[in-house]
Amino acid sequence: MLEAINICHAGTPLCEIGNTVQRIAQSNGYRPMKIVTGHGVGVDFHTPPEIKHFRNKDKAELKVGMVLTVEPCLVEGHGAHITFADGWTISTVDGGLSCQMEHTIYINETGPPEILTIPHERNKTEMRKQ
């Protein structure tokens, strides 16, 4: 996830986020669950653009001032899912384990994006080293 966040700069095509997540996931034996996407954050919490965490061809570009989430869900197995009656809870069909993490980022004029969900600058620096 951090590698995908670190490529987020003004002008980066949205597809690069998903392409990066999928490449890393697959190289470690996992796959992204396609139903779980990131999103823009604005006056409403879930706003465009949709951030796909899998290989895609979305050429829309990140712009300075955007706030968005990067929140891939990685799964074992084939990645098929079921959605529970509450319309929100999902699970893998084959019982494979899954893991999801989320960060909210701000696209700066220069440099790496600011990770808004890490509270202290020291922690941000340490996290980027991982």
TrEMBL record:
Domain Peptidase M24: start-end pairs: 2-109
One Pfam family hit: Peptidase_M24
Which InterPro entries does this UniProt record tie to the protein?
Creatinase/aminopeptidase-like, Pept_M24
One Gene Ontology MF term: metalloaminopeptidase activity
Taxonomically, which superkingdom?
Eukaryota
Name of the featured protein: Peptidase M24 domain-containing protein
